[in-house]
Specification:
Helices cover 44% and strands 13% of the residues. With 312 residues, the chain is α/β, with parallel strands linked by helices.
Length: 312
């Protein structure tokens, strides 16, 4: 405790702490294709990669039966939404064509829609025809890591379907958007990210997607070195002030390994938890994670603490 803090009363210190960690205002709900997702507590989005080359889980769930078992496990651990992806975005990943992506994705989506009808499904894709097929198979959300830049048809498909969309900041093409090739920023990287993301959101809404169906993601780790990712997270209140639900995808990311010294992505759960709790305090409401149980418990406890501070 510093000298100035030592001179303050315990009640004053408590009020100061509560103001630092009170959760900024956010929309009450996020409107999806056929339902409304409440945002009165942190929304945990479980990651389900049905790819043979994911950076984090090494293709463990490429087999449909393994993917379905993992989906049920994630929901049992507290996932509110499942985000299913069939094309890896790790650095150096080989792009797949739409036919291969659909072949990996659709059998799993159809089974999930039938077996877990209460759980909204998100599809992680940059391709319009893949998204259209996924929406027909029961998806409620389209999560495009290109920020709807790569396929001009995708925003219109989402507008016509009336689905939820996640607009993520990124730069570059599919082969390099998760690398450092485009990680060049000036003195205020967070402001640059917001400016570019604002243009992406404007394009999506210009195609007819209703604002209440839009969530925004600052794209931690995409065209961002560790310092850029940390700056973007620290500046989340400015992004939350736009009035859209804010999603963060920090799970097992490279910047966490750089901060903690943990090289194995699967061992970065504690660093991920720290980043998620900080993001909650700064305005995020949606959390895309591999380790659902850790995220669910940590975020619920953090939210309860913040709520207690708000009642003082």
């Amino acid at each position: 405790m510093g000298k100035r803090d030592a001179e303050r009363s315990p009640d004053e210190l408590s009020r100061r702490s509560a103001s630092l960690f009170s959760v900024p205002a956010a929309p009450a709900v996020w409107r999806l294709r056929t339902r409304v997702l409440p945002l009165d507590r942190p929304v945990v989005i479980g990651i389900l990669n049905v790819t043979p080359d994911s950076f984090s889980d090494g293709g463990r769930f490429a087999d449909p039966e393994a993917a379905l078992a993992q989906a049920h496990r994630l929901v049992a651990e507290g996932a509110d939404v499942l985000d299913v992806g069939a094309e890896s975005t790790r650095p150096g990943a080989v792009p797949v064509d739409a036919a291969e992506e659909r072949a990996r994705l659709l059998p799993v989506l159809r089974r999930l829609a039938a077996e877990l009808p209460a759980v909204p499904l998100s599809v992680d894709t940059t391709k319009g025809d893949v998204a259209a097929a996924a929406l027909d198979a029961g998806a409620e959300i389209v999560n495009d890591v290109s920020g709807f830049r790569h396929d001009p048809s995708l925003a219109q498909i989402c507008a016509d379907a009336g689905c939820g969309v996640i607009v993520m900041h990124s730069r570059g093409a599919a082969r390099d958007l998760a690398t450092f090739v485009h990680a060049s920023y000036g003195d205020d990287p967070a402001a640059e990210v917001r400016d570019e993301l604002r243009r992406q959101v404007g394009a999506v809404e210009g195609a007819g997607v209703a604002p209440e169906r839009v969530a925004v993601d600052p794209g931690v780790g995409f065209a961002k070195r560790a310092a850029h990712s940390l700056a973007v997270l620290a500046a989340l209140p400015a992004l939350a002030a736009w009035g859209y639900p804010v999603l963060v995808g920090v799970s097992r990311k490279r910047f966490i390994g750089e901060v903690t010294g943990v090289k194995d992505p699967a061992e970065r759960v504690h660093g991920t938890t720290g980043a998620n709790v900080a993001a909650l305090a700064l305005g995020a409401r949606l959390f895309r994670v591999h380790d659902v149980l850790a995220a669910r418990q940590a975020l619920d406890v953090a939210r309860a603490v913040f709520a207690a501070g708000e009642r003082r």
